[in-house]
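[Automated response] Your request has been received and processed.

Submitted sequence:
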Amino acid sequence: MLSLFSEAEPPPPPRPRAAPHLSRIVADSTDRVAWLRARSQGITATDAAKLATPKSVQNAAYDKTHGTSFSGNTFTDHGRAREPEIAAWVLRNHGIEPSTHLFHAAGQTRHLATPDGVGHSADGVLQLAEIKTTSKPWRSIPRSYLRQVWWQQYVLGAERTLLVWEQHLDFVPVGPEPESRWIERDEDQIAILVGFANDLIGILNRQATR
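Generated structure:
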């Protein structure tokens, strides 16, 4: 697919600080079978995005145990098709490299995340990118996406995330470039998500021993 965005040289990569997250790679989504198997063993950012209330924890436990009937549609197919082009735009304009790695959190091997991009700021601070496509304009960033971003930051130890979204009309991008916004790390929200995730793991453990 041809890029819709103007070509430009990406900024030179900054000198990173120590990168302990690289020692916590679990799988790579290019090996989809191994990646899906590894994801099934823990709580991913996709799971964390749904963890808003105690009831949602129960619902997530049911989905993790029984699976869901959703396997994708034309909207998710469009998102997967556009992601490499949007990721290239992120690299050119912000120097954040595309990533396909699944990571686990420090000291928590069942807390997992696969961010769309991983890079460093000019002063070497770890930062991420997350890419979305949407058929509707956003008045604000959907809360589920914020939870997903905060969970990824927690798992990798990142300080902020560039959330990038591209609106489309009948699967044709409406603008010359995607929109983006930096999301800062929020320790209070992360603590809530970690608590819900541990509750979910507890439910799954109890179900496994029945």
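Summary generated for your ticket: The longest helix spans residues 187-208. The CA atoms of residues 73 and 79 lie 10 Å apart.
If you did not submit this request, please reply to this message.
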